[in-house]
Specification:
Layout lengths: L33 E3 L2 E3 L4 E6 L4 E7 L3 H19 L4 H17 L1 H12 L3 H22 L3 H4 L5 E3 L2 E5 L5 H14 L3 E5 L6 H12 L7 E3 L4 H9 L4 E5 L2 H11 L5 E5 L5 E4 L5 H13 L11 E5 L3 H12 L20 H17 L2 E3 L15 E4 L6 H4 L6 E7 L2 H8 L7 E5 L3 H10 L4 E4 L18 E2 L12 E3 L1
Parallel strand pairs: 6-7, 6-9, 7-8, 9-10, 11-12, 11-16, 12-15, 14-15, 16-17
Antiparallel strand pairs: 1-2, 3-4, 5-19, 10-18, 13-14
Bound molecules: nicotinamide-adenine-dinucleotide (NAD) and manganese (II) ion (MN).
The site of nicotinamide-adenine-dinucleotide (NAD) has 27 residues, from helix 8, helix 9 and helix 12.
């Protein structure tokens, strides 16, 4: 009999064909102003925001001065006083539900924009950032008319104007984390996206227009740290900040004694703890997802791997093999696992810390990998032979760089995991439920994942201890910082 497969062509090359998402789906303006009182305010100063994967400019955006921030705060105050705060919760909910639905409808467009301006793989912006941002608005829409039940006998009242400053790692998702609970609680906001990733927040103003949100309820101003500092100093009732611990501390000093409410979501240096009874292949997937997700630009990234000595070699072998299969490159390619580093500045910070790891004596592993010529890139990296005192074990790298440490006993794992100024998140991998429970009791971290990593849900509070900040976002806890009680 004739054997058909003999004549089937044998591929000479098993690399993927590229599968680029269409860039055309997003229509950008050449120039954006500040979104104040429902209108575009012509900015006094501007700068170009770029695509970090190509270094091509995408649009001109404003650099808000103190006076422009002042206008935004006034618009927010007016909207608060002229109806928004007095609106029944069920009416506020309608706007939030609308925003959530429009985000879902336009999710492909926003996912492309998020990858263009931030460098993250389209697979992640499509499957994580956008669905979660919409889910956050849906979730808080559901609370808007139930505040008295959420806080029984406490007579919750909105605060007024919230000033919100967000980072560049999850631009639209962080916007959702900030705006949804603030509006559900009856506040109005002035929000500043990070200087490297302003476009999704500016594009979001069109969603607000579509949802017919009353003018001034949400105001967006763009600019760098000076604009952020102007918001913090301005006449707002509440400041919500996500970003570096250094800036978080400065904000806390600035606000001390002013009576303004403050929540800080800062950095992390999370331990991802692998016990010898864990399902190792799954754990390796969790390690990869823990540190290489979003190029490691994740405050809760599992950047310190703690492996029990008896399985150390197995885990490292599997991990290195897995790293050779990660695809680094074009963020808009649907096959890409690791995209571009967000900015030149962040790339330099990663390079500096990686150089320090090599100097201090750690062993570096990087899989063979061809990087694009233009843009900002960093090969997924693993450091072994790491001492707890090394900078790569202590400092947040905020890049695709994993530091591996080992332990023998659960006590030692806890000791090492907690040996950090941070306390945002941790991971535990083990077959034993009792061990999961005892570890979660002893690890000093706001979020602990068991046999998984980097999972988020709007109903689950997120936030840290120690230098990772204070206050929680998500869940019922996330409403409280936006309310006053009698
Ligand atoms: P950053 O803290 O400087 O910036 C975060 C946001 O704060 C941006 O919108 C920025 O414009 C604004 N900002 C800066 N200075 C300010 C000030 N004095 N007052 C008010 N707002 C100000 O962070 P970065 O410089 O972009 O990144 C540095 C490091 O911070 C990273 O390497 C990482 O370790 C950490 N980081 C953490 C997170 C997080 O999600 N927790 C996010 C971004 C960065
Ligand atoms: Mn900074």
């Amino acid at each position: 009999m004739e054997r058909k497969q003999d004549r089937a062509p044998i591929p000479a090359d098993w690399t993927y064909a590229s599968a680029p998402e269409s860039r055309e789906i997003v229509e950008l303006r050449e120039r954006y102003g500040h979104f104040v009182g429902g209108e575009w305010l012509e900015p006094q100063e501007t700068y170009a925001t770029i695509d970090p994967a190509s270094e091509e400019p995408l649009a001109e955006v404003g650099e808000a001065t103190e006076a422009e921030v002042q206008l935004a705060v006034e618009a927010a105050r007016e909207a608060f006083a002229n109806g928004w705060s007095a609106l029944p919760g069920s009416e506020r909910a309608k706007y939030l539900f609308r925003i959530a639905r429009i985000l879902q409808e336009r999710s492909r467009e926003f996912a492309v924009l998020e990858s263009l301006n931030g460098g993250k793989p389209i697979r992640e912006s499509r499957d994580v950032d956008l669905p979660l941002a919409a889910a956050h608005f849906f979730y808080y829409a559901g609370w808007a008319d139930k505040l008295e039940y959420a806080f029984p006998n406490r007579k919750p009242k909105p605060l007024g104007v919230a000033g919100q400053v967000i980072p560049w790692n999850f631009p639209l998702l962080m916007l959702a984390w900030k705006i949804a609970p603030a509006l559900a609680a009856g506040n109005t906001v002035v929000l500043k996206p990070a200087e490297t990733t302003p476009l999704s927040a500016l594009h979001f103003c069109d969603v607000l227009r579509q949802a017919e949100l009353p003018p001034g309820v949400v105001n967006i101003v763009t600019g760098d740290g000076r604009t952020g500092a102007a918001i913090v100093k301005s006449d707002v009732e509440k400041v919500a900040f996500t970003g570096s611990t250094e800036v978080g501390k400065a904000i806390q000093r600035e606000l001390a004694g002013t009576g303004k409410k403050l929540t800080l979501e800062l950095g992390g240096k999370a331990a991802n703890v692998i016990f010898d009874d864990a399902a190792l292949d799954q754990a390796v997937e969790g390690i990869v997802n823990g540190i290489y997700f979003n190029q490691g630009h994740v405050c809760c990234a599992g950047s310190r791997l703690l492996v029990q000595e008896s399985v150390y070699e197995d885990v490292i072998d599997k991990l290195k093999r897995r790293l050779t299969t990660l695809r680094v490159g074009d963020p808009l390619d649907k096959n890409t696992d690791v995209g571009a580093i967000n900015s030149r500045q962040q790339l330099e910070k990663i390079q500096e810390l990686v150089a320090s790891g090599e100097e201090e004596g750690a062993s570096i592993y990087q899989p063979p990998c061809r990087l694009p010529e233009k843009g900002y890139w960093f090969v997924p990296t693993v450091f072994t032979d790491v001492a707890q005192s090394y900078r790569i074990a202590q400092e947040e790298i905020f890049g695709p760089v994993l530091s591996v440490l080992t332990f023998r006993t659960p006590d030692e794992a806890v000791e090492k995991a907690n040996n950090t100024p941070y306390g945002l998140s941790a991971g535990v991998w083990t077959e034993k439920g009792s061990r999961i429970l005892s570890m979660t009791q002893r690890l000093r971290a706001g979020v602990i994942w068991a046999n998984t990593y980097n999972r988020f849900d709007p109903s689950s509070p997120f936030g840290g201890y120690k230098e990772s900040g204070f206050g929680r976002e998500g869940g019922l806890h996330g409403l409280e910082p936006y309310l006053d009680f009698e």
